[in-house]
């Protein structure tokens, strides 16, 4: 090759640098995609774990027909929301004092009132919601709530994603999927929803309005215009979970084996060294 036709050093360098740049970009893109895949798998698994926990809380409470929170004394703090309350005296003597069957002295009546036991009934859904409040107050990155197409409490009405999820899980249930679920990414958050199947214990509150506890019928907070007509074994609503997505690079660094990351770094350095050596030989 004559001097006039021989490639200039700059051109020779470009021929080597371009493949090297493509290699580095390709490796970086592959790492980014792997990191994103890890993040999605981990976050989706975490969302499913939260939904499992919510379902198990409901099953635990359902086998007892709900839970009664006990307080002692008429001055005791009310244990949050409840659906019914039953009050008992602890002895026949106290019952006689409080009912007037015995002529009490003031001190005896006050002592009897201080021993009164009250049992506040919370149904499974209320227990699940109170656990959700505790989780949110704890600062946990994963939060959840329960919702449905129609609700007793308007604070539990579905948002835009949950309406979308209700349609999606209903279609999945019609297709015969065992655990209908739906999710999508919104910003830096994974939104996840799973269908809730009605249990027999749900009907105590959600069968018909006429059969619902008086507390639900008379309390304005639970006049959301729906929440009835549940059928055992059929979808009744959603467990809706929100989990923030971590940075793909951070997920890759924390999840990938250190040996694998070290090997990848060595490979990139080797490619750069070979390109630099080739450039030196051509000069």
Salient structural properties:
283 residues; alpha+beta; Beta-Lactamase; 2 domains; 4-stranded antiparallel sheet; 3-stranded antiparallel sheet; 9 helices; 7 strands; 51% helix; elongated
Structural description of this entry:
- The protein has 283 residues and is α+β, with helices and mostly antiparallel strands.
- The protein has two domains: 17-66 and 124-248, 2-Layer Sandwich (Beta-Lactamase); 67-122, no CATH class.
- 51% of the residues lie in helices and 17% in strands.
- The chain has nine helices and seven strands.
- The chain has helices at residues 9-62, 92-99, 106-115, 124-137, 160-174, 203-206, 214-218, 248-255, 258-282, and strands at residues 67-72, 84-88, 117-122, 143-147, 181-186, 189-197, 235-244.
- The strands form two sheets. It has a four-stranded antiparallel beta sheet with strand order 4-7-6-5, sandwiched between helices.
- The longest helix has 54 residues, at 9-62.
- The protein is elongated and about 115 Å long.
- It starts with 8 loop residues before the first helix and ends with a helix.
- The mean pLDDT is 79.
Put simply, the count of helices is: 9
- Helix and strand content put the structural class at alpha+beta
As a percent range, the share of strand residues is: 15-25%
Helix content: 40-55%
| CATH class membership of the largest domain | Alpha Beta
Round the Cα radius of gyration to an integer and report it.
Answer: 32 Å
Low-confidence stretches: none
Q: Return the average pLDDT rounded to an integer.
A: 79
CATH architecture level-2 label of the largest domain: 2-Layer Sandwich
- Main sheet summary: 4 strands, antiparallel
The tally of strands reads 7
């Amino acid at each position: 090759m004559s001097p006039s036709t021989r490639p200039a050093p700059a051109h020779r360098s470009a021929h080597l640098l371009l493949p090297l740049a493509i290699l580095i970009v390709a490796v970086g893109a592959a790492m980014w995609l792997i990191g994103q895949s890890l993040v999605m798998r981990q976050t989706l698994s975490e969302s499913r774990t939260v939904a499992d926990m919510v379902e198990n809380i409901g099953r635990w409470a359902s086998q007892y027909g709900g839970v009664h929170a006990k307080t002692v004394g008429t001055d005791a703090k009310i244990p949050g929301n409840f659906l019914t309350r039953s009050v008992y005296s602890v002895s026949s003597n106290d019952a006689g004092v409080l009912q007037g069957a015995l002529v009490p002295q003031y001190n005896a009546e006050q002592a009897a009132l201080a021993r009164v036991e009250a049992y506040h009934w919370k149904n499974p859904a209320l227990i699940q919601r109170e656990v959700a409040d505790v989780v949110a107050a704890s600062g946990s990155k994963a939060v959840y709530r329960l919702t449905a197409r129609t609700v007793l409490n308007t604070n539990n009405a579905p948002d835009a994603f949950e309406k979308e999820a209700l349609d999606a899980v209903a279609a999945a249930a019609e297709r015969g999927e065992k655990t209908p679920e739906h999710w999508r990414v919104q910003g830096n958050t994974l939104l996840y929803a799973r269908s809730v199947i009605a249990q027999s214990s749900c009907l105590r509150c959600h069968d018909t309005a006429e059969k619902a506890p008086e507390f639900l019928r008379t309390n304005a907070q639970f006049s959301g215009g729906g929440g009835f007509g549940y059928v055992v074994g059929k979808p009744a609503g959603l467990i809706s979970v929100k989990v923030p997505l971590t940075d793909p690079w951070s997920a890759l660094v924390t999840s990938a084996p250190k040996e694998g990351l070290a090997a990848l770094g060595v490979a990139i350095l080797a490619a750069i060294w070979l390109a630099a050596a080739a450039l030196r030989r051509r000069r």
